[in-house]
Amino acid sequence: MSWAEEVGELDRRRHLAERMGGPEGIAKHKERGKLTARERIAALADAGSFAETMALVGTGVYDGLHLKDFIPKPQVEGTIRIDGRKAFVFASDFTVRGGSGMPVNGLGAETTISERALQWRLPLLRLLDASGGSVRTFESMGRTYIPDGNIFNATDVRLLNSVPVVSAVLGSVAGLPAVLAPLSHFSVMVKGISQLFPGGPPVVKAALGVDITKEDLGGDQIHTRISGCIDNAAETEADAFDQIRRFLSYLPSNVDQTAPRTPTDDPAARAEEDLLTIVPRNRKHPFNARRLIEMLVDRSSFFEIAPLHGRSRITGLARFNGYPVGLMCNDPMVGGGVTDVAAGGKAMRLIQLCNTFHLPLISLADEPGFQVGLAAEKLGIERAGARLVSAVCMSEMPWCTVVVGRLYGVGGSCHHRPSGMFRRYAWPSANWGSMHILGGVSAAYRREIEAADDPAARQAEIEARLTALASPFRTAEATGQDIIDPRETRALLCEFVEDAQPILAGQLGRSTALPYLP
């Protein structure tokens, strides 16, 4: 007896599911310049590696017992491989009900893709293009429902402390999918075709009486520059997929594994002569921080995260002698490298990422301190600073700071950790203290300066006297702080990262001290 007839029925149902929203729906989708859900998965995955799950879920139209037609669920999901490593993928299918629909919830329902990622300890990749809930659902259900999305969201939150999670915004994303976008370790959106908001222009019009376009409300210029809800902008969908692949290449598949090392022909002892001159003697002249990074890390290995938001702090992933690390650096070309609320948030998320996935953290410090002024006060700079201090102190991964320039105040202390494997080096160009001498003299010596016959001359005299005390060599005499030739930096950092590997191996597993919060 053969089951050929039933296998034929299986093949027919799979074919019906692969039609997605049908030729008309697909054509409209492509007119907007977007790939379909299945094309997106194919573009992201290693060739031929996609294995679909729950492909038969949907709404069947029957003639008696015979299936006449089939509308698939508005998501395509399963497993793929990226550079040979397996991951779960979830792609919204906008051609079917705008990419939104109720989850599988029948008796005996299979576990969700998020639950599988958690149980199998594999990364989860979300390709989002979904409009969120719709009042049409009420009519089909014959009732309304109490919002209970956290039944499912709880798993997505737990994922953040277990496996890498990536979200790509590839269309107009609203409602619950809009929350899932930043509920990740890395997020990217495509210029021109992607928008993100809890409610789109019609909802804004009804609630506030304001007319606004989707792009003005939630385009990439809003979320990668101002709000910081999305990390990176991509020029095309292909660019977004390249960024996802590169981000994942630095991370392990889960917190119980070490990050993969990549072969490199870049010598650990490489010493760049330009490191001697990159920090100018006149500190009113900023230096090129990205050039500094490129001279130290393995060649072409730096992957920047959130380059357009919180721009006074550069954050990203890199490699030293093939080992992945997290790296942050003040950018003196933007606000003098000051730590404002946005830059502090970026630094905190990088610390959390490194701590969660057991990556060493490298900090290249030229820190003038926390942002001052009325605007910073209105944004809550003290609370932002407190959060950053907390993240620093609760972190456990190996950390090395190289002080290349300034290190002032509480902002400066956020480049130091008093526990665990921590190392600090300083260049001869470094200087530090509770605040900059030029700014502090006016406050600390105000009465003396005002009482002088020549206040300007007295202030200059005091500043010169204190500047002479600011030599890093005087600090080294008293504290043992190691001052290094800038050209030695790469070799010392490669050695530190190598020494960190046994420590990291002993830290594998979930971090309870510093949970990952988006």
User: What kind of sheet is the major sheet?
Assistant: 8 strands, mixed
Number of domains: 2
Mean pLDDT: 91
Low-confidence stretches: none
Number of strands: 19
The CATH topology annotation of the largest domain reads as 2-enoyl-CoA Hydratase, Chain A, domain 1
Task: Round the Cα radius of gyration to an integer and report it.
Answer: 27 Å
In the CATH scheme, the class of the largest domain would be Alpha Beta
CATH homologous superfamily designation of the largest domain: 2-enoyl-CoA Hydratase, Chain A, domain 1
What distance separates the N and C termini? 56 Å
Category from helices, strands and their pairing: alpha/beta
Helix content: 25-40%
CATH architecture of the largest domain: Alpha-Beta Complex
Shape: elongated
Total count of helical runs of at least 4 residues: 21
Q: Provide the β-strand percentage band.
A: 15-25%
